[in-house]
Write a structure and sequence with these properties.
Length: about 425
């Protein structure tokens, strides 16, 4: 008996939409299934999209896609309860087309991407939470929902982080969620008119500003970073917090986000803005969260479901990897269709593509970073060290001037970081970054 579709894609996030667009444009009969009432309705994302990969399937996409602003400036810094130490990066090329990074709101972008999949010929169904994969022995042949089977020789699983439909199956036999590899993402969106945003952040029309902060402002032991992005007429701010660092500390997420947004440097940015959205989500990131395999007989896993989300404790990048892995899965499915086989051996091409596209090499490298990113000193003594040093260098006291060597020693003492720790952390970062 023939199958209902050439391919079924579970989840209309960035990975699923990218896969469906490429498949439909390649002439495949594809079903894209989303549990939300609309694509993007259930997506929470801080919002900087590095969009190079989209160009492969939607040339000139930034002209049409409902993006918020193209980013022209990034700020990185350290917060202590009393201070903010930061530096800015601006590059002329960021102001020119094709822009490199965009702030986005997922409810808008995902709905638009799903429409592009439909326009290319994919069948999109929403408000349908896929119950499980349709296993025939060790092979996946489509999906099951409400007792009904929809079949296809290839199923691309793109249901996001903590993928439920793969749990307890050969794809993910056991839950690998570990405290170390799990972060809590918290995000708030504030409304502020476009003119005020542009005036406040010295931006031209359509230009955006992004900030990432090491937040040395939390109760002892709690580690995380903060982000702040400008949208068209809203602001996104939020936190990425190590779940492990929260264990047993009796700290609540709303307390952490309050500390961040009440910090004088951040409060000035959201002054007069009205809170319109709040969300929190657990993110299983990186190599430790990968499934048992990325492909098998009749299936492939893409995007966050495959663990392709990178977090360095301050910033998260997953949308770019979602798009790229979705496209690579689609290319593999198209080759399988041409070959008339969706066996595990045929779909092994997906792993080769994940290698050659840089995804797997990147995530192996990031695994080394996992060892250093939750070093408590990054979130405690180093923000203080930067603050003490800059305070001493930037403040005229009326007294005698001190040498930089003296100021460095004084900052080190005030922050409570030994020279040995500084050297050890420096070496670790140099080798693992
Ligand atoms: C607070 C926060 C900030 C972030 N900031 C950034 C950032 O600035 N830049 C960046 O690149 N990345 C960021 N990320 C990560 C980024 O959001 C993800 O990496 C990206 O969304 C992954 O895309 P995806 O398509 O794999 O999964 P998702 O976007 O999660 O999409 C999965 C889709 O599958 C659907 N689904 C789930 N289960 C089912 C089911 N059973 N049946 C049908 N549909 C289902 C969901 O509703 C969803 O639409 C952030 C994440 C968080 C939480």
């Amino acid at each position: 008996m023939g199958d209902d579709f050439d391919a079924i894609v579970v989840g209309a996030g960035l990975a699923g939409c990218a896969a469906a667009i490429r498949l439909a444009k390649g002439g495949a009969n594809v079903l894209l299934v989303e549990r939300g009432a609309e694509a993007g309705a259930k997506n929470l994302s801080g919002g900087i999209l590095w969009g190079h990969d989209l160009e492969r399937i939607l040339p000139g996409w930034w002209h049409e896609m409902p993006i918020e602003r193209h980013i022209v400036r990034k700020r990185f810094g350290f917060l202590t309860p009393e201070s903010a130490t930061s530096f800015d990066f601006e590059d002329g090329s960021w102001r020119k087309e094709p822009y490199v990074a965009h702030s986005v709101l997922r409810a808008r972008t995902d709905a638009w991407l799903a429409k592009q999949a439909e326009a290319a010929g994919a069948t999109l169904v929403t408000s349908v939470p896929v119950e499980r994969l349709n296993w025939e022995g060790s092979r996946v042949r489509g999906i099951v929902q409400g007792g009904e089977k929809m079949t296809a020789p290839v199923t691309i699983v793109a249901d996001g982080t903590n993928s439920r439909i793969t749990l307890g199956t050969p794809i993910r036999p056991e839950h690998r969620l570990s405290g170390e590899a799990t972060e809590l993402g918290i995000k708030e969106v504030y409304r502020l008119d476009a003119g005020t945003i542009e005036e406040r952040f010295h931006l031209g029309p359509g230009e955006g500003h992004a900030e990432e902060w090491v937040t040395g402002i939390f109760p002892p032991g709690v580690m995380g970073g903060g982000f702040f992005y400008t949208n068209r007429d809203t602001l996104s701010l939020g936190l990425i917090v190590s779940v492990q660092s929260l264990f047993g500390r009796g700290v609540y997420s709303h307390d952490l986000i309050e500390r961040f947004k009440l910090h004088p440097a951040i409060a000035a940015r959201v002054k007069g803005a009205e809170l319109v959205e709040y969300g929190a989500k657990l993110i299983a990131s990186g190599w430790a969260s990968r499934p048992a395999a990325f492909h098998g007989d009749g299936w492939m896993v893409a995007g966050d479901a495959a663990g392709f989300v990178f977090s360095n404790g301050i910033v998260i990048q997953g949308m770019n990897y979602a798009v790229r892995s979705g496209i690579e899965a689609a290319e593999t499915a198209l080759a399988a269709k041409a070959a008339g086989s969706s066996s595990a051996a045929q779909l092994a091409e997906y792993d080769h593509r994940l290698e050659s596209s840089g995804i797997l090499p990147d995530f192996r490298d990031f695994a080394r970073l996992d060892r250093v990113k939750w070093n408590p000193r990054i979130y405690t003594v180093y923000p203080r060290f930067a603050s003490e040093l800059l305070h001493a260098m930037m403040t005229e006291t009326g007294g005698r001037k001190r040498s930089v060597r003296h100021l460095l020693r004084a900052a080190q003492k005030a922050a409570g970081v030994s020279a040995t720790s500084l050297i050890r952390d420096g070496i670790e970062v140099a080798f693992d970054l």
